[in-house]
């Protein structure tokens, strides 16, 4: 469940940034290459997975509002976590790799900006 909470928190923040016309951080010059240890392919896979996790979060929130009881809500959360894990794996990452990128993006504003830019481009 920690995986889903962490990835949903990041994708919520990323989604909010995607809705802003031109975030200040994106108007600054950005590095052309990914940070050391991460390939362009990994970042692209992450962006695709994060978009899918974001979609799952939106669905989960709607389903939770309609849940009749705490047991149903717990089942919905568990199902969503499984779907999020499959979405990450379908995009060629392990959950450990996905979470490592989440942590790196939380610590590195340039990486965060690179990922939000990729997500924005893919969402269009």
Percent in strands: under 5%
Class by alpha and beta content? mainly alpha
Overall number of structural domains: 1
* Strand runs, count: 0
* Major sheet attributes: none
Q: What is the residue-averaged pLDDT?
A: 82
Which bin fits the share of residues in helices? over 70%
Our measurement of the CA-to-CA distance between the termini, rounded to an integer number of angstroms, reads 30 Å
Round the Cα radius of gyration to an integer and report it: 15 Å
**Shape verdict:** elongated
The topology string of helices and strands comes to HHHHHH
Runs with pLDDT <50, length 5+? 13-31
How many individual helices? 6
Brief overview:
By secondary structure, the protein is mostly helical. It has six helices and no strands.
Would you write up a description of this structure?
The protein is an all-alpha fold and 124 residues long. Helix 1 packs across helix 6 and helix 3 crosses helix 6. The longest helix is centred in the middle third of the chain and has 27 residues, at 40-66. It has helices at residues 2-19, 24-27, 40-66, 70-90, 95-107, 109-123. The chain is built from six helices and no strands. The protein has one domain.
